[in-house]
Amino acid sequence: MRRALPAALVSAVLSALMLGAMPAAAVPATNFDGLVALSNCSGAVIRWSSSVGSDKALVLTNGHCFELMGATQVVVGQPAVRDVYLLSPAGGSAGTVQTTKLLYATMNQTDVALYQLGLTFKQLRVQYGVHPITLASARPGKYAAISIISGYWLTEYDCHLHGFAYRLHEDVWTWRNSLRYEDGGCPVIGGTSGSPVLNASRLEIGINNTRNEDGEMCTLNNPCEENRQGAETVHPGRGYGEETWIFYTCLSSRKIDLSKIGCRLAKP
Question: Which phi and psi (to 5°) does residue 110 adopt?
Fold first, then answer.
């Protein structure tokens, strides 16, 4: 889990976005429509499969991109204003908008932060030419081909999943059934936190959140895996993401309802 970036680097990257510049490292064929950059992370404008144009637009990133939250902390329905830098399909700047509310955030069992914008999906499309990415409603296959696209770095990583980590431990946090990237694949870096993990149909199946950087066991930036028998292992260089289909277990009339029977998101 890497999100802390030098202030000068943050300023340079965001200035480049505002000017519509595309770093040389960008993949020319990458479609950045719906991708966003935040002050410290990446993210995406997302929609449910049932969303309509008049719904307020949503932005999904990691919980640790909101703040380094407590191990069991959950935030629901909190006013939150932060800048969101929208990208054009080619990776240039499409404009800057602001969030109005933090609908849900936690680092308990998963690592997610869901913001609401002041604009509707239709307004985003008409005013900025931005189209949301749809969240997949089903769990991905164990070895699915994936693309991780960073709105912060304007970079795409392509690899495959290699199953799921039953429990993933990093410092004080524990995440369940994390997406496991194939060894040697998708070498994500700081600033890619919050990037959508997309399948071959460009549906978001997860959200990128961490990678074992130094080979350490269960420390900050060095997650370790625990299997169903309780054995812990460390895999240097391996990256991970968090499943996003679980949001659908808590949806009622296109709204997050933590009291819904079967809801798999952590409660306050």
Answer: -145, 180
Is pTM, for the whole model, over 0.85?
Answer: yes
For the chain, what is the total number of helices (H) and then of strands (E)? 2, 18
Return d(Cα 212, Cα 221) in angstroms, integer: 6
Both tokens assigned to 38: 């935040």
Q: Bridge partners of 60?
A: 44, 114
Three-class DSSP labels, 43-67:
EEEEECCCCCCCCEEEEEECHHHCC
Question: CA torsion angle for 131, 244, 196, 36 (degrees, to 10)?
Answer: 50
Q: Which helix (H) or strand (E) holds 98?
A: strand 93-106
- Model pLDDT for residues 128-141, shown as the tens digit of each residue: 999 999 999 999 99
Tens digits of residue pLDDT in 244-263: 999 999 999 999 999 999 99
* Amino acid, res. 73: Q
Strand partners, 3: none
Instruction: Note whether 136 and 244 are within 8 A (CB).
Output: yes
| Cβ-contact 153, 23 below 8 angstroms | yes
Rounded distance between C-alpha atoms, residue 224 and residue 232, angstroms = 7
What is the longest distance spanned by two Cα atoms in the chain?
53
**Contact of 210 with 170, CB cutoff 8 Å:** yes
